[in-house]
Amino acid sequence: MAVNTSDAHRRAVPEHIGSGFESANIAAMPLILATTTPGEPEIFASLQGEGPSAGRPVGFVRLSRCNLACSWCDTAYTWHFTGDNRPHRHAATFDRAANQLVLGEAEVARLIAALGRRRLVVTGGEPLLQGPALARMAEALASIAPETSVEVETNGTIAPHAGFDAHVAQYNVSPKLAHSGNPTALALPDAPLAGWAAEPRAIFKFVIAAPEDIAEALALAARHAIASQRIWLMAEGTDAAALSAREAWLAEACIAHDVNLSKRQHIEWFGDTRGT
Ligand code: SF4
Q1: Using CA of residue 203, residue 214, residue 193, residue 154, what is the dihedral sign?
Q2: Could you give phi then psi for residue 175, rounded to 5 degrees?
Q3: For strand 149-154 and strand 43-47, is the pairing parallel, antiparallel, or unpaired?
Q4: Which end of the chain lies in a sparser environment, N or C, as judged by fewer CB atoms within 10 Å?
Q5: Is it the case that residue 17 has pLDDT exceeding 90?
Q6: How far apart are CA 270 and CA 276, in angstroms?
Q7: Which contiguous run of DSSP H or E holds residue 203?
Q8: C-beta of 73 in contact with ligand 1 (< 6 A)
Q9: Pairing of strands 43-47, 57-62
Q10: Which atom of ligand 1 is nearest the CA belonging to 207?
Q11: Does the Cβ of 126 fall within 6 Å of ligand 1?
C-alpha cells in the first residue's frame, strides 16, 4: 500500500546533494526520499521481510543516498545516479531527478502516520546520512502517532544523530563484507562498528553470497565481541530461486555456528519490486 502526496509539500532536490558524503551543511539538509515512480515517495505499508522482525506488519519509508556502493545493491536507484562510475552488477544508472524527492519532515510524518501501522522501518540507501532531518521527522511522528516504534536499517558506518536515536527501538546493522566491492576502510570502520557492538538495541545482519563470506562475518563479530544471538546471516540475491539455493547451505552454517538465519521473505512474497 503506497501513499500519494500533494504538490504543495514537494521541494526541489538541491543540486549539491548527490549520492554520498558532501560538505554541505548537514543540519540544514532537507529529507530526501527515494521514489516508487517519479514524484511519489517510497512510503508504504507491508510486512518486514528480513531479520528479527520478519513477518511483522510495518510501514516503510525509504530514504535516498548512500555512502557505499555495493556491487549487488538491490536499491541502486537510491544512489547509483547518472555519472556515477562506481561498478554495479547492473550497469544501468538512474536519473537523480526521477528517483529522489524532497518532502517536508512534517509531511513525511503525516504520510507515515496515515499508513496506520504501529511499527516503522526506516531504510534506504543509508538513512543515517540524513540524521538531523530524520530527527525532525521522528519528532513530528512522535507528536501525531506516539505509539509508533521505529526500526532502522543501516550499513553500520555512521553513528546515529542523537535527536533521532532517542526515537529508535531497534537497529538492524548490516556491515558490508569484502564481496560487496567497497574499500574496507569505508565499509568496515572500526569505531562505528565498536559503537554498534556496544549498543543493546542493535542486531547484526550479514549478507552472505558465498560460503567463504561466513568466516569473514564471524571474525568481524568476534573482533567486536558480538554475541551469536545478535547475529543473523542472510543470503544475497534478488530472486527466490537463487535465495533458496544459498539458504540450503547457509542454514547448515547457522546450525553449526549457533547464529540466526534471515530469509528475504519480501522477495518470495512480492518479487524484487519497489514499494513492497
Ligand atoms: S549499503 Fe545498502 S543501500 Fe548502500 S550500496 Fe550497500 S546495499 Fe545498497
Answers
A1: negative
A2: -65, 140
A3: unpaired
A4: N
A5: no
A6: 7
A7: strand 202-208
A8: yes
A9: antiparallel
A10: 7
A11: yes
Measured in Å, residue 154 CA sits from the centre of ligand 1 at 9
130 close to 149: Cβ distance less than 8 angstroms? no
Q: Which of 42, 64, 68 to mutate to test the pocket of ligand 1 (most atoms within 8 A of CB)?
A: 68
CA of 138 to the centre of ligand 1 (A): 22
Please tell me the distance from the alpha carbon of residue 125 to that of residue 95, in angstroms, as a whole number: 15
The yes/no answer on whether domain 7-270 falls in CATH 3.20.20.70 is yes
- Mutation to probe ligand 1, out of 21, 71, 78, 155 (largest number of atoms < 8 A from CB): 155
pTM (global) more than 0.90: yes
pLDDT digits (tens, 9 = 90+) for 152-194: 999 999 999 999 999 999 999 999 999 999 999 999 999 999 9
Which tens digits make up the pLDDT trace of 236-263? 999 999 999 999 999 999 999 999 999 9
Grid coordinates standing for 89?
A: 552488477
Distance of CA 107 to the CA centre of its chain: 21
- Nearest of 117, 176, 111 to residue 147 by alpha carbon: 117
Reported as a single tens digit per residue, the pLDDT across 118-148 is: 999 999 999 999 999 999 999 999 999 999 9
Sequence spans of domains, the chain: 7-270
Ligand 1: centre distance to CA 147 (Å): 29
Nearest to 206 by CA among 179, 182, 225, 186: 179
- Relative to the CA of 182, which ligand 1 atom is closest? 6
Contact between residue 146 and residue 177 where contact means Cβ atoms under 8 Å apart = no
The separation between CA 244 and the C-alpha centre of its own chain, rounded to angstroms, equals: 22
| Sequence letter at residue 135 | A
